[in-house]
Design goal:
The chain is α/β, with parallel strands linked by helices. It has one domain. Helix content is 39%, strand content 12%. It is built from 8 helices and 3 strands. It has helices at residues 2-5, 26-33, 35-42, 44-50, 74-78, 80-85, 110-115, 117-130, and strands at residues 14-19, 63-69, 102-106. A 3-stranded parallel β-sheet has the order 1-2-3, covered by helices on one side. Helix 2 (26-33) crosses helix 3 (35-42) and helix 2 crosses helix 4 (44-50). The relative contact order is 0.20.
Length: 149
């Protein structure tokens, strides 16, 4: 997020992160277990991604939201043992180690979130307009924990 931190996006008011305790392990699993296939399909990008932490937006005046995916992708289900070996899945909004103004959970996996983006759009629009998701979004980490299998 260097552009944000350097103040080069002066009109930026909102940032919405798509986060997933499941999917964020996928690059490391791909690099570890499917090294050659990962290289052929994604090149060095997947290797960089597997060792790069998320850079949270810390610019003053920017409202930040987290949309947390609560369903594992087929890839994570297929590599569940490796995903679990990386430690417990933490769904609490604070577990993502970044500042946020609102946080909500969606019953979608990473692929579905982009395939069914229209379903999420009303919540994103609410955050863009008001700095908060609507009252309808699920805000309970307890309701989504433990869903890997």
């Amino acid at each position: 997020m260097p552009l944000i931190e350097e103040g080069k996006l002066p009109n930026l008011g909102r940032v919405i992160y798509d986060r997933s305790p499941f999917q964020e392990r996928a690059p490391a699993i791909a690099v570890d277990q499917l090294r050659m296939l990962a290289w052929l399909r994604y090149g060095s990008t997947i290797f960089d991604l597997s060792r790069t932490a998320y850079a949270p937006a810390a610019a003053p005046g920017v409202h930040v939201a987290l949309v947390v995916e609560s369903v594992p992708t087929t890839f994570i289900k297929r590599h569940e043992k490796a995903a679990r070996a990386l430690g417990p899945f933490a769904f609490e909004c604070g577990a993502f180690n970044q500042r946020f103004d609102d946080c909500g959970y969606v019953e979608l996996n990473h692929d579905e979130l982009y395939e069914r983006f229209a379903e999420l759009w009303p919540e994103l629009l609410s955050f863009i307009r008001t700095g908060h998701f609507s009252a309808a979004i699920n805000r309970s980490a307890a309701s989504v924990a433990g869903r890997c299998s």
